[in-house]
């Protein structure tokens, strides 16, 4: 039994997988916080950009009709 425990203690193959899992969990948590914090602002920004594009499209259409 001691031999198995010593072998497991020396085996470092699973350490990298655990590190990657911790990093992935941390990145996921940061993304959730960022989306929660900035989600409404980003949505408002894209909404404003969409409105500007529509206004520009309408002005171009009106200028073509007025020729």
Which descriptors would you attach to this protein?
67 residues, 2 helices, rod-shaped
Description of the structure:
The protein is mainly α. It is built from two helices and no strands. It has one domain (2-65). Helices cover 93% and strands 0% of the residues. The chain is rod-shaped, with a radius of gyration of 28 Å. 0% of the residues are buried. The mean pLDDT is 88.
Number of strands: 0
| Rg, Cα atoms, Å | 28 Å
Oligomeric status of the shown chains?
Answer: single chain
Mean pLDDT: 88
Q: What percentage of the residues does DSSP assign to strands (E)? A: under 5%
Q: SSE string, helix = H, strand = E? A: HH
List the helices and strands and how they pair.
Blueprint: H1 2-10, H2 13-65
Summarize this structure briefly.
This protein is mostly helical. The chain has helices at 2-10, 13-65.
